[in-house]
Design a protein that fits this description.
binds fe (ii) ion; about 60% helix; five-stranded parallel β-sheet; about 350 residues; single chain; alpha/beta
Length: about 350
């Protein structure tokens, strides 16, 4: 209840403090007093205070000097300035600095009580609005997360359905995602970047939907034209996902077959100019491809695949990313592969 509020009366004149205290106590307010700015700060530090009645003129630190300190350190505390009639300009200035109201001497105690009621009501409304806004922001954030989760789930289902058509690629994107996320975490990337890796890993081969199935599952060696056709999936995939994911994810899909030394097909950037996410995906993608059966070759052993990543660090792969990948225990990811296969 507003009339149970705690009020601090700051004035160097004891009679004025007593007068105001008596009147406000009758209204049910819990009042305390301070005879100087220093005493006021001391009381504020040790007692929760809803409202301060602050005398503008006091020996030592004035009310004008104290007001900004109270506003900064106790933003939820309302302040009413107490002024002599001649100080209206200063009082107006104080209101611009965050005071709720001003009362003029000699005091009409009914007006003082009315001003206190109004200031406390205004403060209550402000706190309610702030709490509502915070609640709203939290609600929006929760909804956004939920939409992302549902959307990611739908995309996941689509990718798995596409991969399930082909026994050679079943589960590939999920494993690439897990490896890429593990590398991202090991690199100490911020959670937003790790989340981007999750999307990139899941969607990196979505462009294969536009690739000739006969070429994709050809048991023999690909002709240069066929290889070139297959490799268009990176650019096609980037175009497909562009409307629904952020630019970083689009770029990591576009560049996920780039070689670190620039030797990849039709490559336009090299080294650190290749987006970081794409360099991470390149390692994760190549490792999983090596340990999986392909129409034209059998799966490589994990040991051998790890050696290949080590051997190609600095040429095909970013050496830093390769080194980080080699520190990650891949056993769990490989085990999951066996469960899916
Ligand atoms: Fe790919």
């Amino acid at each position: 209840m507003a009339n149970k509020a705690k009020i601090l009366i700051v004035d160097d004149e004891v009679t004025i403090r007593k007068l105001i205290r008596q009147r406000l106590s009758r209204e049910g307010y819990q009042c305390s007093e301070a005879g100087s700015a220093e005493q006021a700060l001391e009381k504020l530090a040790h007692n929760s205070t809803e409202l301060v009645i602050l005398d503008i003129r006091m020996p030592g630190k004035s009310g004008i000097e104290l007001l900004p300190e109270i506003r900064a350190d106790y933003p939820d505390t309302a302040v009413i300035m107490a002024t002599a009639v001649a100080e209206i300009d200063i009082a107006t200035q104080c209101m611009k600095q965050g005071a709720y109201d001003y009362i003029s001497k000699p005091f009409n105690l009914d007006e003082v009580a009315l001003s206190v009621d109004r200031a406390l009501e205004k403060r209550k409304l402000e706190l309610e609005i702030r709490e509502y806004q915070q609640h709203l922001e939290q609600k929006v954030e929760e909804q956004t997360q939920e939409i992302r989760r549902v959307f990611l789930g739908a995309i996941e289902a689509l990718v798995f359905a596409l991969e399930a058509k082909d026994k050679y690629t079943a589960g590939h994107s999920r494993r690439v995602t897990e490896i890429a996320v593990a590398i991202g975490r090991e690199l100490g990337l911020p959670s937003d970047d790790v989340e981007d890796l999750r999307w990139g890993g899941l969607l990196h081969d979505v462009g294969k939907i536009a690739i000739d199935q006969l070429i994709q599952s050809k048991p023999g060696k690909l002709t240069p034209e066929e290889y070139e056709h297959i490799m268009t999936h990176a650019h096609v995939g980037a175009g497909i996902v562009k409307p629904v994911v952020n630019e970083k994810v689009v770029e990591m899909i576009e560049h996920h077959h780039d070689h670190y030394d620039g030797s990849g097909l039709h490559q336009v950037v090299a080294g650190k100019n290749i987006p970081l996410g794409a360099r991470v995906l390149a390692v994760a993608d190549a490792f999983d491809a090596m340990i999986s059966d392909r129409p034209y070759r059998s799966a490589m052993s994990v040991e051998k695949a790890l050696n290949e990543i080590r051997r190609c660090a600095g040429t095909q792969f970013d050496p830093t990313i390769a080194a980080v990948f080699l520190k990650i225990p891949v056993a769990k990811i490989v085990q999951e592969k066996c469960e899916i296969a």
